[in-house]
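Dear colleague,

Thank you for sharing your sequence with our group. We've completed the structure prediction you requested, and as agreed, I am returning the results in plain text so they can be pasted directly into your records. Please verify that the sequence below matches your submission; if there's any discrepancy, let me know and we will rerun it promptly.
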Amino acid sequence: IMDPYVPPEGDARLTSLSKDGVKQQMQKLRQTAASQLAWEFVREKAGICGLGKGEIYGGRSENLLGRKVGIFEGKGRNFFNKQKLHSLVTERCYPDMVRGNRYRTIRWRFVESLEPPRVVHLRCEGVMNRGNLYGQVTVRMHSRQILAIYDRFGRLMYGGEEIPKDVLEYVVFERYLVNPYGTWRMHGKIVPEWAPPKDPIIKTVMIPGPAPDPSEEHE
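Please find the predicted structure tokens below.
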């Protein structure tokens, strides 16, 4: 991620009337100065309007449902679409999306958007030479989602399907600007230092059986 965006502390919790909220607005103005310089160039090369950020974000999550083990349906079904996922995320993001998901059931659902997605950061730089241009857009997304992860035995490991949670994310999308037919793909996420820690994974263990009686052992 080129020049990562630094989210203001207390985002989505502070108001513009509070003292900390005023400091947040001043910091936002300083951070957007460089983005304004790259805005016109990227819009001319690739176009920002009609990015389809919400569609990309929702699509990559729905295509990450992985291998079903038949917890609710009663039979296994494979929903993993590798080709579709590659069209939605970059080569850097793909390993992070699929690592550790084998033999797990992931149930994710987008409930609603609490605030409209907003572009908060934009950068355009050349890789290796000035003609090899890449554009990166950081989008602030504040939404309500449901996420539940089950292990291969159908036991809940993380989250739950009953209560939705408010999620504030800073998602980075990238596009190769030289290619006129290129598309914006998810490149990564920015996790601020002040973000609250995630809920721990629920560890499941096998219940030990009764201890064998030495008198009942057989060869």
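Summary note from our side: Residues 65-78 have pLDDT under 50 and may be disordered.

Kind regards,
the structure core
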